[in-house]
Amino acid sequence: MKVIQMLPTFMFGDAIGNEALEIDRILKDAGYDTTIYAENISDSIPKNIVHDIRQGFEEPDRDDVILYHMSIAWPYFPCIQRAQCRKIALYHNVTPASFFKEYHKDFYDGCMSGLNEVKRLKNEFDYCLADSEFNRQDLISYGYSCPIDVLPLIIPFGDYRKKPDSRVIRKYSSPNPCAKGTNVAFVGRIVPNKKFEDIIAAFTLYQRNYDADAKLFLVGNYGKDDVYFCRLRDYVQELGVKNVFFTGHISFAEILAYYRIADVFVCMSEHEGFCVPIVEAMLFKTPIIAFDAGAVADTLGDGGILLKEKDPLLTAGLIDRVARDRELREEILKGQRRQLSRFRFEKIRDLFLRYLSDFCSRKTEEN
Amino acid sequence: MAQKIDVEKIMDEIRADIERRELDDTLVPFDEIPFSNEIMNVLPDSHAYSRKELRRNLLYAADHYKVPLDRVIEAGNAGAMTVKKAVRKFTRFYIKPVVEDQNSVNAALVNALRQERNYIQIQEQAVRELKERVAALETEIAELKKNDRAALETEIAELKKNGRAALETEIAELKKNGRAALEAEIAAGRPEAESAAGMPEYGEQRTEENSSRNLKQAKRSTGTKPKYFK
User: Fold this and answer.
1) In this structure, are A199 and A311 located in the same domain?
2) Boundaries of domain holding A97
3) Is B46 an 8 Å CB contact of chain A?
4) Which end of chain B is more exposed for a tag (fewer CB within 10 A), N or C?
């Protein structure tokens, strides 16, 4: 029996690509014969790990299993449809197209057709694994009747023990989280659904009313001519707020450094299928304030503070409270530690292998 | 998901603090930040098609296609202004037809772009419909293939079963007929056949039936005690 992972895009640093790599490693360690096929492959990914599906696709046998990472529409999906084998979908969610309507026609069209495809494929799979309960409910609402289980994204905690960039730490560390010069951070690509403007608005009022020396680090990639990024940049200028840093594409060591120096992590995203940065912030013992949308509540659990409404001044007050109230910080971090244990690599790895094994036994009995 | 921290209590305290200190919450709404014109003017050649860009540029061209001939001369030095006005008057005969020709070309380009935009919209709709049709057909084909394959496999299994049954029947029949012919031959009284009939096949187990049959045959033929071969 072979396990074949398939995904449209395999990019370095992308959450889905990272998960595919981890699954590959887990399967090989467990003795499975496994391989990965993708269409758009980042140059930095070694050729022997991911195969380009455009070069050909070996037809699977009846008892093989295809693991399809479902996130956007893919013209190569008919290869999966034609295959006479068992099929599992790993559903990572599709960002609602409406977020991109004013900004990026290609993303808008991609998300639209992606969501249509997810709905169209409701009878194609024997089993689905969803990153979160939010994603699972999405599939049910689209008419998926096959068994669906929740499998949180596989995050190798060990990778985060690597050495962070010392220059960033030296340059931006705040001497005392309870004193002035609080570092507020958010990590994520500069895309409209993550609502960076709401973080900037709350931070502006925080800097104006509570901490004139505060700094905001928006750690995420953007295109220089990207319309959304340009609006954010203009917004910062219009507000007159200082010490707002857009890092752009940076190394993993630098990302670790920004997590290390952050005193408060603020997330105002309005759509997330899982939100890996929340787990990362927990790993770095940074208190989290997050708006309740998508799978954020599932991932945050009872760690961090979940906001039910967006009020920039209230959020600013909360940032100040979290930064200065030691007792509250400790309580938040305690909750985050408890929640973090749910995502331990070994736990998720064992869960995934159990799901796979149970699925294969079920299908064998049915046959 | 239940939170151990009383978030509501904390938020109430913050609200009270904000009110007490009369904190400033004035902000420019993000919606008021325009989409930067700079983006429109610095598009690199390889920029992918953007309907939004097409619409924006078309609107701008439609609003500004007619370039005005007369421009206001900025107030300044009286002598310089007089010279400028005189130059404007004396070159009008030459500039006016050029501007009119340019405006005609601009108008034609705006109309052409409008036609292109309409054509694109029609094509986009057609492509959307085609994609939906292709998707439906692919699903149908996959379904047909699945059903055909299932039907074929059932047929093959059936043929195998029937073929095997027919073959086994034939073999049994041949065996029966062959054996009957052999026994008839024995009954016809051929000595070699008689003694051979009593002997079991090589490897055949001596069953009670065989022994009894042998005994009867031996008695009938010789009237003596049956011989048992070792």
Assistant:
1) yes
2) 2-154+344-366
3) no
4) C
